Amino acid sequence: MQPRRSSALRTSAGTTLGTSDDRPWFLKNSRWEDSTWILAPTNALEERLPVRLHWDFSVEDGCSFTDARHAPLLQTSKRLIALIRGRSLYTGLPLRPSSVLNFFHTLRLLVRWMDLEGLRRFADLDRPALLQFQHRLSVSPTSRHSTRAASTVQRHLALFNYLYRCRAELGDGLSFDPFPGSNHHEAAGAREGLRRPWPYTPDTVSVVLLQAAVKIVTHDAAHVLQARETYRRVMASAAAPPHSSAPVGRATRALRRAREGTSGVERPVTSVSELVRRIDMLYAACFVVLSYMVGPRVSEILHLHAGCVRRLVGDAAGAPVSVIVGSIFKRQPGYDGCPHEWVAPPVAVQAISVLEALSEPHRALTARPELWLRLRRGNGAWEWHEVQPELLEIASAPRVSHLLRRFGAALGLSHLDKPWRLTTHQGRKTFARFAALRDRSCLFALAQHLGHRERAQTDHGYVGSDYRLNQEIDAEILNQSVAAWEHMLAAPGLGGRAGAEIVAKRPRFRGSRMKQDLRSYARLLVDAGLVLGVCDWGYCVYREEHSACLGNATGPNPARREPSTCARCQNFVVSAQHRPYWLEQVRRSERLLNEPALPLQTLRIVRARMNEARGLLRALGSDTAEETDHA
């Protein structure tokens, strides 16, 4: 088992960074004067491939940066990287090696440009030089006619904050504030609304994805694990040279015999090659369940250990709650991260059990507790036969991303007639989006889709102390509210009692800046504190005195909100994008009215619901009315 590095994460205070015989606390198997620095891993995922910084890169004159004539600037650059590794300007905590590597790439660009301009010290930089370098940063290295994204430029410009604020510690640096009255984000041209956030998985894709993942975890997993044990038993008894085809053929025949003796299995494993593929898909399904239903980051999922599920008393009534115990690593200085608990629904607990069964042989062989131990490369079926302990490691994030792409391709996931590419961050983003709906109406559908007995189980899934996840949820609420107001301010017609009021009072937007003015006005309404509920069947422009759901001062009452209540509420707005929902309500009601066995009271309720839906659809326009009459 790899030794823990928590003791290595001391602050850099008191460390003699310039002493040639000293190895700073953040280096591993390298010294200060070496041309290559190997940064000490800060978690288990970094153990196999630690970050390396190569100081012997070439500069513009063809020489190496480690040549004697660059010695003063080299020493200053090393001190700068050491300061960056030891302390973030924003949190005061040590930065992860991957973040330090980004700063090193910027430093390398700056040093090469300074050598071209004849500058020997960072203090030689002035404002015109900084603007000139910023212009060079903005030009794409692949084409002089294209520009880098503002997010890329701002990441490079962040280095100058260190050069200015740490100039006394460095003995060299900027003598002026590089961004007076501003910051590196604005200097790079990043503006509100221009940033493209990482995407979530669209509803049409996530439903199919989760249905498949849950089915694999709850129904297929037992058969795949049984086939894996059949394969291991046959291979262990085979007296043949390693990687011989004879034992593999024998294992295939054993799998087929096992299929004949098993009834009720929808998709039996009939060959070794299929076993390999099904095991990979089982790993992918477990990741999807944990990511989309619990919400951890990929690093937090990959660091989970066997036995991480615990049962706790969840409320005053003593109802037990299952939690997954792990660690959060983002902006945490320790090797083991910050301990954390995620409340988990039953299917997520089942996914952990499947991972424990999958990893059990590898954990027994290595005496390590990680759930994602896999063969380093060339898995095949040989991952489970004659494996050397040193070849096992925790699966990396790129490897999981590759598994997800294969999983999505196997399911045929598509959106807007294009294949949808799954990535490791989409589960957390989609989870935050579900939780961000203020009325939480989606939780009813999600609970039903995932097989929960009650919505409270799903509701518990995003109640916790994950501050960063709460931030993402708040950001998603803000984005949804602004987008909803933009839509209502621009829609040609609105239904519902509040819809007519908005159409009558909203300002008119015209001209070339109409989109910008719409978004600015929408943001103004949100910043003013006007609570807006977003759901599948409409919007709620919430005012407590008009609330049909009997909400309080903080917002609508999620327990009493439902389509019929909203339809008769003075806060309710419906637009053209909600037309499919209400049209389906009409059609469903008409089908129920044709059921002869329904009692009279039920028929009255159904007829009332149908009339409500038709009324809202007529308010949206004549085309919709014709559509409902035809239905």
UniProtKB/TrEMBL annotation:
SUPFAM superfamilies: DNA breaking-rejoining enzymes
Keyword Lipid metabolism: no
GO biological process, any: DNA recombination
Keyword field: DNA recombination
Record GO terms (molecular function): DNA binding
InterPro entries tied to this protein: DNA_brk_join_enz, Integrase-like_cat_sf
Protein name, UniProt field: Integrase
